[in-house]
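seq:
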Amino acid sequence: MKREAPLLALCPIGKFVFSNEDAVRQKTRLQEKLREWNVQFVDLDGVLEDGLVKDQKHVAPAVDHLRKAGADCLFIPHCNFGTEGAAAMIAHKLGLPTLLWGPRDEAPLPDGTRPCDTLCGILATSKVLHRLGVPFTYIENCRMDDPTLERGMDTFLRAANAANAFRNGMRIGHVGQRIDFFWTTICNESELLERFNVEVVPLDMVEFIRDVKSRAEKGRSGYEKEIADLRKTCIVEDLDEGAFARILAVRDQLLALVEDRELDGLAIQDFMSLVDEVGAYCFFANSMVSDRVSVGCESDIHGAISGVFLQRALLGADSVFLTDVTVRHPENDDAVLLWHAGAPLSMRHPDSPVRLGKHWILPSSLGGMTHFRLKDGPITVLRFDGDRGDYQLAVGEGRTVDGPETLNNYAWMQVENWPAWERALVEGPFIHHAAMAYGHVAEAVAEAVRYVPGLDLVRLGNPA
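struct:
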């Protein structure tokens, strides 16, 4: 599994015509701030004099050092003015998500001179970054203790972590094949690989089922103990011991595949072959697996990609659920039902016990379907999708709101201007599936998109 927080390359920029003492002071203060914020970083101390880039000849040693350190993103703070050519060439050669900022300049000295012109230097560097075609994130010129800097740094790190899911390569394991009547989940694997560095790893359903049954048989005693404990905490209906053990074996086989095949996410056929062979619906396995890795049910590869991207924006700290945007709230015009099965158990509302019951839509006597309400809180919703080479990423934010009880896993979400959301989702290349997570990270997601060529951003809720 990839590390959750990206390694920041701290590349402080100075210039010989302004106060070197002031530049060193600003660099040192910034290092202290990064440590205070628990940001992992590598700097140029011991590589360049004073650890500052101040000349074009500093490009090669800085790039070589930061590459060898394995940096995931680049921060080029301007500490007294800025050597724009060197700063931009370092960003160009490293090819990493890049953050530009500088501390707000203080008043001129009593004699009228100025120890730094940081904003001026930023404007020079931004021009060269544009000229070299380097995308970058900018935090407005502010003092180091201004909350704007800490918020901007947090947003950038989340954005870089999400963007690098595409930049460094993503592997989605696909168990089975697309369900025949789900035309919405048709995708172009070749385009995903060629344009977004996403590899779909086919996992044969016959082999998967065979391995699940073998795992359930060999680990029977251990599963029986786990089942006994689960029956104390869950409401279990229409599920015998053998089927329950096979559901747990599905969980373990999925997790084994994630580790063995180095997968970032999963897309699963779900029904009906798996259901028939296991003798139960396996969404409880999804619930347990999706607390670890993005799971796209119903062979939704774009949905799995959406989940990986969103989880990376969360720095891996929270789980993601591939939900259905289902029905509008019966009374609240700006609220909608987020619903599906197989939600991460960590998303369960504390007042809602886990119930494993029947599928209430499909006529079947089999159990194993998860039923519990989702917890309350702020929500981010995201969908990566595309047709005919046009790929878009839609993102928006909302918050849970009270609504009628329903089945499976659900929450009612209120947003700003639901009609605008609805129109964007219907008229864009999107479907009813969307990744959801708790917390508001839409700004980081939007920032991440600028580092993914060929991907356009759709901000849900903004009027057309």
